[in-house]
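Handout, section B. The chain below has 219 residues.
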Amino acid sequence: MTFSRRVFLTVFRPLLNILFSWRVTGNENVPVTGPVILTANHVSAADPFFLAFGLPRWIDFMAKEELFRSAFVRAIFRWAGSFSIRREGEMRHTQGVLNQAIGVLERGSMLGIFPEGSRSRDGKLRKARTGCAVLASQADVPVLPVGIAGTDKLGGISWLWKRPPIVVNIGKPFRVTPAQGRLGRAQRQCLTTQIMSEIANLLPPEQRGAYERHEDREG
């Protein structure tokens, strides 16, 4: 972690603690070193901040292209190590993003991805895109699932005095099946479901949405 990033976390973490009632569980599951893909649900613009301040490692995030249109914001994201992804783009752009992501992992860094691709408006998990699963399979690195609960209550201004409880729940890292050539559609969907199910298990039942487990269908 660079000196400027360390200073940023040190200075602003107390402010986050003052403004929000939040806690982190499972920090012992975070790999201390080495490449890892952090995957989390996404319901609020505040989610990346709780991840950045809650985990003991710096996170290089994938972020939607629209956030990079302002020169000022783009400079901040570049400083933070984030890079843009076009949610609906040509194969050439998709391959370029994949190469950037692999480059982050080859440097031994933590790459942050929200597999759903955009924020969930109702707080429940949405069907995820398969790009994260493809990356995890090709890179063959650990995937760290994280469930964020409570940030869906941050809309409006009333949260300032209501201070809804927010929990960042970190699961145990796991690996998906390494790619042997190009992944077929069924393989991509299967690996995506595996990743999202791990995230769902870290969330309250009412937030699991598309990946809610039905006990009567298991076994």
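Note. Strands lie at 21-25, 36-40, 59-64, 83-85, 110-113, 143-149, 165-170. Compare this with the example in section A.
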